Amino acid sequence: MDSAYDFSTGSRAQYEVALPKAKDFTDHLNRVTKNRAASTLKELYKYQSVPGMIVMAGGIPHPEVFPFETLSATVLAHDAFPLDPPRVPKKNKSVLSWLFSLPKPTISFTIPKYAPKPTDATTIQLSSSLQYAAATGPPALPLFLREYVSKVYRPAYADWDVLVNVGATDGWSKIVNMLVELGDAILVEEWTYPSAENTFLAYECERVPVKMDAEGILPEILEKVLSEWDEEKRGKRRPRILYTIPTGQNPTGATMQLDRKKQVYEICSRFDVIICEDEPYYCLYTGEWTPKGSKSDRSVLEQRLLDSQKKEGPEGNEAYIKSLPPSYLNVDTEGRVIRMDTFSKTSAPGSRLGWITANPLFIERLTRISEVSTQAPSGFATAMTTVMLQQWGFDGYIRWLRGIKATYNMRKTWICDAFADTFHLEFNQNKSLFPNGTRTITCYSRQEPRNRWDEKRDAHHKPLVTFTPPTAGMFIFLGVHVSEHPDYHDLVKKGENATQILVQKLWTNLADNLVLFAPGWYFDAGGEHAIGGNGYGYFRLSFSIATYEETYQAVERFAKVLDKFFHVK
Amino acid sequence: MDSAYDFSTGSRAQYEVALPKAKDFTDHLNRVTKNRAASTLKELYKYQSVPGMIVMAGGIPHPEVFPFETLSATVLAHDAFPLDPPRVPKKNKSVLSWLFSLPKPTISFTIPKYAPKPTDATTIQLSSSLQYAAATGPPALPLFLREYVSKVYRPAYADWDVLVNVGATDGWSKIVNMLVELGDAILVEEWTYPSAENTFLAYECERVPVKMDAEGILPEILEKVLSEWDEEKRGKRRPRILYTIPTGQNPTGATMQLDRKKQVYEICSRFDVIICEDEPYYCLYTGEWTPKGSKSDRSVLEQRLLDSQKKEGPEGNEAYIKSLPPSYLNVDTEGRVIRMDTFSKTSAPGSRLGWITANPLFIERLTRISEVSTQAPSGFATAMTTVMLQQWGFDGYIRWLRGIKATYNMRKTWICDAFADTFHLEFNQNKSLFPNGTRTITCYSRQEPRNRWDEKRDAHHKPLVTFTPPTAGMFIFLGVHVSEHPDYHDLVKKGENATQILVQKLWTNLADNLVLFAPGWYFDAGGEHAIGGNGYGYFRLSFSIATYEETYQAVERFAKVLDKFFHVK
């Protein structure tokens, strides 16, 4: 847990200087990005700090006319969320009593217009935060972020840097603006986040889906796509960008571990592909779900790491960081990874605050792009977030993330338990939905005669839905066995898109019964599928927002709708 | 002062329905903008509000894990700034005592995580503000903005709307992204804001400067440029966009009144040009400067309006709104005006909060662009700003603007008075700097023998600098008579760029003497000049930030540097 940056001085630690420097990726910049000039007015900045200088150069208002004199906040304490909440919430009159209604410890702070030490790099004051500022934001925030990146992601090259933005959507939009030419091809996971696609589809870009399993994209498929790319036949250059969500992938929930990342990185390096890792769910890596009363098949070491994570203090913090899947940055010796982080899941989405970690060339060009678009993120957001982080401290922030993670783990357990209590489950049956030995859960109706389950399974039992219990993020990606529907084969014979027709019908039935899932087809990147495929319809279920009772209600309603839909007797 | 929108219900008032609807400007959208699809995930929103629906469709965190429990602010009262501050600050030990050190009245508010009436359109609560949200922002803010646009700008067509953004730079960037094709030509003022140019220059756009006077662009020049445009010769289509800063233009300080706007609008309509009016300084329209001891040449009616503006209450508020130069929106019967407003000058630049007013087609496309880039502005900024506006109320906000305006007027008076006290002034002498009968002030050194000024002016007197006292904004655009410099003609003979060499030398002399002005060449749009031209070098002086004492110091240092530079004996 060395720090590449000394938080108090902002200087890089010695050891990191020994790492290689980033390669030159100039030829990845698009034409417009190469054209971008530094903001000419900003050149004046260097003169402005000369002592005694009367500055009449900038067009900035006097802070005395800012209406905001002080801003204050009450924020939860860094340890407000328990590390090991009970599996079932305690019953109480209030549905959310045990977790949410009890007052949690809080801290308060006030940000003045003028702070006592205005020139300290860590100072946040409204006269600066609410003033025009460099697109890099208030120095105190990148200072904190560099310490975080250095300690948690440990990039494998020396001269990386961070740049704040107004959230990962903005970050990705700026990356697309920096690298993409009209009509380019961009590598994506076979199921992916449609809003990320919308960013580049307008530029007439072709998405090139790569098949995946429960760890994400399959290296052999990626290699095949790239090595067999025929620029003449395709009418466009080989993809130079991979957009990927390695942890708690949206929508599949897939999480990629270190070995797979090494393989993907090696291929991307060979074919000169920039890896854009979008990691909103990184801190929500929760590990596997174990059914009630089952024994886990974890090794002794794995179990020890898990137990350590329930402890307060440095041991627990270190165990948590160790448990996180290493970032692509951790294998990035060349500087070809652009990582997107956001405060949306770790603080609040409405902050519109995130950051990019990348090589110095990309950071410089992205700064130019920011200067003529968003400029710095809102000073309200950076001031509030920075002071909160400072109040918690680095270790406190890690403890906060562990509390958040435990909360998501609890919610994930709720929904998996709800499936276990509502359906009859069979494990590891449907290899076709998640290949490569992924743990899967197939759900059967409890309406089917119970005693039959003691017999050898036979054709009478209809598998209804199958999913892999998520290890991160906030989603379950659930495959519906629409091929088991009585009308399926007739529809297929008629040449209809049976899967789409039936899954859409089921989705509407569900909405009519007051359960709203996200339709899987929203996330379909349009290629052939390794996960699922024909005969399987998909829903993405988010477990981030429903209460314990709502979660059970939703799964029970889902079971009833499924019974009716599949004509289960 | 009718309102097109009823603030409490958000519905349009009857009278505005009688106005024409916007024309169809679809053919102004560029190729990428035509490609943009609505964010598919957002389609789910309509189902989410069904009562009893268990929503597992979105990927949103539970507000309980937002660390922010409450946000509070202490803000200045709407009437914190006097309407008629004294011309010279009262002396005190503290340099800023009279204006700034006295405690000003404040109000305080706290925004809870959960408000009592969460579904009211005007409710601001952190569980919503800090959550993912539509790109249109929290409904309460556009409600306020529509009332403001309706009452202050009074657009001349019915179906305009507003869209929030993260400041005017972001707004302009999105407009460029919406309308501009690579290589387009864009109309700008002959002197203009370089950051606005940087936004489109990367797209290999050509700026087409239009000559101006103290009211801004000259209609006859605009018409000439458009009517004589030879698409074949130029290799590009006729300009379809005008970027303009009509009030307190940056850098010239020019302000355009209604009659001129009508002429420009008519030409733009005839040649199908979209008018993009960027109005950061609109509320800082302060009117003319009258030297100490001089009588104003205002008419009785003008004087009455000015006196009314010093009164508290509705009469003063109405006089203020009446005194503002009508927006291009006010003559826009077709919906071809895109207006950019920002809270940067009226609240604080670090808010990163502004809005666009435009026709419904443009608003819809800009919303799509926002969805894949910034999304909604930061909830910290919208929550704080909206509640502040609600606390002040509409009339209170107008009173706040009047206080701000009075403060800028005071600062403008300081710097003009400083010139009057430091130089010998002659009025309306140099027509060539600001054509069309603009009031100009030419400054002569006080080092020249005083008694000579009683004589008929002769060649011994070197005019040093000339400017037109600004009527809005925060800048003086000051022309230096570099052709009076002893080396000027020698340099010209040698074929050097004498103006540039000498003004750059003067700028450096000034910086060495601790006065930093913005160099005029930053703002040169690269065409022929009606304002100034060869033999004149320019500086832009901002009077928004310096204290009274600093203002005098700066002007005095400037005078000394000028004397030395021009070898005045």
How is this structure best described in words?
Chains A, B: This is Aromatic amino acid aminotransferase I. Chains A, B: It holds the Pfam family Aminotran_1_2. Chains A, B: Its cofactor is pyridoxal 5'-phosphate. Chain A is an alpha+beta fold. Chain A has two domains: 14-59 and 133-284 and 299-377, Aspartate Aminotransferase, domain 2 (3-Layer(aba) Sandwich), CATH 3.40.640; 407-565, Aspartate Aminotransferase, domain 1, CATH 3.90.1150. Helices cover 34% and strands 15% of the residues of chain A. Chain A contains 18 helices and 18 strands. In chain A, the strands form five sheets. A six-stranded antiparallel sheet of chain A has the order 13-14-15-16-18-17. A five-stranded mixed sheet of chain A has the order 4-12-11-10-9, with helices on both faces. A two-stranded antiparallel sheet of chain A has the order 2-3. In chain A, strand 7 (212-213) and strand 8 form a beta hairpin. In chain A, helix 6 runs parallel beside helix 15 (379-422), helix 7 (168-179) packs across helix 14 (360-371) and helix 13 crosses helix 15 (379-422). Chain A is globular, with a radius of gyration of 26 Å. Chain A starts with 13 loop residues before the first helix and ends with a helix. The relative contact order of chain A is 0.13. Mean pLDDT of chain A is 90; it is low at 1-10 and 95-99. At the A-B interface, helix 2, strand 1, strand 2, helix 5 and helix 7 of A face helix 2, strand 1, strand 2, helix 5 and helix 7 of B. Strand 2 of chain A pairs antiparallel with strand 2 of chain B.
